[in-house]
Specification:
Shape: globular
Radius of gyration: 19 Å
Helix content: 25-40%
CATH class: Alpha Beta
Oligomer: single chain
Distance between the termini: 5 Å
Largest sheet: 9 strands, mixed
Structural class: alpha/beta
CATH superfamily: LarA, N-terminal domain
Number of domains: 1
Length: 387
């Protein structure tokens, strides 16, 4: 990796991102093998001591199946692997979106547990030996205030679930998909699932900095100190609408993406999402995807603010601006993440097997290589394993 270790690679360390191939129609056994290969190449698990508790954070906004939510097969594979590596408690948990679940000081409407059972994730996690944790069931007072980086767009600390205080490690397992308001929903965006309703309200009400708040939400102490790895099954990609439904693309050769860096993971995951979105039917992108229109993005965000806090916040909420995403360099979330999470990483793509075609590796490599228009202060070196 000589090229990556010079220049910007000296300032911003090389972040390895491992890709394992998944052929279309692959068996559950093959998908689990790809997850294990990617995970074991992405980290040496030296952070895990025998008996440690690990929290797995999936993306589970609704009760819809993968890829609207994280792959149950991938979650089961990770639970099994962590147990084999010596983990004691492995806990899988989340809190669904306001469209389905609302936690308030007065009570709870909806159930993330029922949604997770519907998607198949609860059964897969339990069968693999995990516990389940649902922040909504724990109640309003089962959260603590954690603070993002100084000078952030947040007016107050973020309310995070107490379960994170009970574990030594976090493994983030997002999905690769579209989002009707944010454009895409990957690793950085998955942090929203931790937040209590009042934090989510501020997020949507003060919408002029919504993208920046996503990045800053990953700078709270609990995540900086405990998150060890980010791994996504992306053999199926939700390429329109989202987060709960839309067109599902299933490429001939899918991938599992794993990295110790959430930023490096999301650079590759967004490149993969955009590549597959370009191949989605044009009429579905033009006529059925709310994100194609600024008006629907603005109205949709106000509707969410109203669901979270009532008519007052809905009327007072700022306008959410649509973020056009032609390349990964357009993404406001990633561009801000470079600033608040240690700079733009030098991405080192490493294939875990020979299933992924060379042209796919080349395309992803080119997609995470900055163009001349990218500010020079953030330009990293790019490398593949062959270098």
């Amino acid at each position: 990796m000589e090229r990556a270790e010079k220049g910007y690679g000296d300032k911003y360390p090389v972040e390895r991102t491992v890709l394992a191939g998944v052929s279309r129609g692959a068996s559950e056994r093959d998908i689990k093998l790809a997850v294990r290969l990617a995970a074991e190449m992405a980290t040496d698990f030296s952070w895990l001591s025998k008996g440690d508790a690990v929290f797995i954070k999936p993306a589970h906004n609704s009760g819809n199946p993968y890829p609207a939510t994280t792959s149950p097969v991938a979650v089961g594979a990770m639970v099994e692997l962590l147990k084999e590596k010596g983990a004691g408690r492995v806990i899988v948990g989340d809190m669904a979106g306001i469209e389905h679940v609302k936690l308030s000081p007065d009570g709870l409407a909806g159930s993330t547990r029922l949604l997770m059972e519907s998607s198949g994730m609860a059964g897969a996690a339990l069968a693999a030996g995990a516990e389940l944790s649902f922040f909504d069931e724990a109640g309003w007072d089962a959260f603590f205030e954690d603070f993002p980086t100084a000078g952030s767009s947040w007016k107050r600390g973020l309310m995070m679930p107490n379960i994170l205080r009970e574990v030594e490690h976090i493994v983030l397992m997002p999905r690769c998909g579209s989002h009707a308001l944010a454009g895409s929903t990957l690793g950085l965006k998955a942090s929203v699932g931790y937040w209590r309703t009042d934090t989510r309200l501020e997020f949507h009400r003060d919408a002029s900095t919504l993208q920046e708040k996503i990045a800053e939400g990953n700078t709270v102490e609990a995540l900086l100190k405990k998150q060890r790895m980010v791994i996504s099954a992306a053999d199926r990609i939700l390429t329109t609408c989202g987060p709960d439904k839309g067109h599902v693309s299933e490429p001939e050769n899918g991938i599992v993406i794993a990295s110790e860096s959430v930023v490096a993971h999301d650079m590759v995951s967004l490149a993969w999402f955009l590549e597959n979105r370009r191949n989605a039917p044009a009429w579905k992108k033009m006529f059925l995807d709310p994100y194609s229109y600024q008006l629907s993005v603005g109205i949709g965000n106000r509707w969410i603010a109203g669901k979270l806090g009532g008519w007052g916040p809905a009327l007072a909420s700022q306008t959410l601006s649509r973020n056009d995403l032609d390349t990964i360099w357009d993404d406001r979330v990633l561009n801000h993440a470079y600033l608040v999470l240690g700079g733009m990483p030098s991405v080192a793509l490493e294939p875990a097997d020979d299933i992924i075609p060379k042209d796919v590796l080349k395309s992803l490599g080119e997609s995470v290589t900055p163009a001349p228009t990218v500010p020079s202060a953030f330009i990293p070196a790019f490398t593949t394993e062959a270098d």
